[in-house]
Amino acid sequence: MCRLKLLGSSSSSLQKRLGDADVKLKEGKKELELFAELNRGLIDNQKVFRDKLAAAEAERQAKDAQISVRGRAGASALVSSPGLTHACGCEQELQEQLRDLMMYIEAAGQIAQHSELAGGSAEVAPAPPPKRGARKARK
Q1: Could you give the CA distance from residue 109 to residue 64 in angstroms, rounded to a whole number?
Q2: What residue spans define the domains of the chain?
Q3: pTM over the 0.70 mark
Q4: What is the pLDDT of residues 74-108, one digit of tens each?
């Protein structure tokens, strides 16, 4: 009889543990399904963004090719254009900036073409500060 009580209490204890394990298993399966769904969504989003990136890269390369085709002739015509004005009338300043930009782009292209210059960079040096006028000598 004592042995029967011992087996009964042991059995109920095991059943409780089995029930707890079953609950944890169900929760784990739900979590697994959730993560699998999230993973599928992330993979789908990654594909979409890769396609967008490829399209943007192709568009950028097309624009780069279009810009290089225009070349210096188009830029020099733009610099000498009499209609090039700014709202404040700073035509000269804009022409100088465009000339500097064209020189920078040309120098960067030459650096890229020469292997001994590869990895270098071209920079525009700042203009030197204006010199002060000489002081008048005292009498």
Answers
A1: 13
A2: 17-70, 81-119
A3: no
A4: 555 555 555 544 455 678 888 888 998 988 888 88
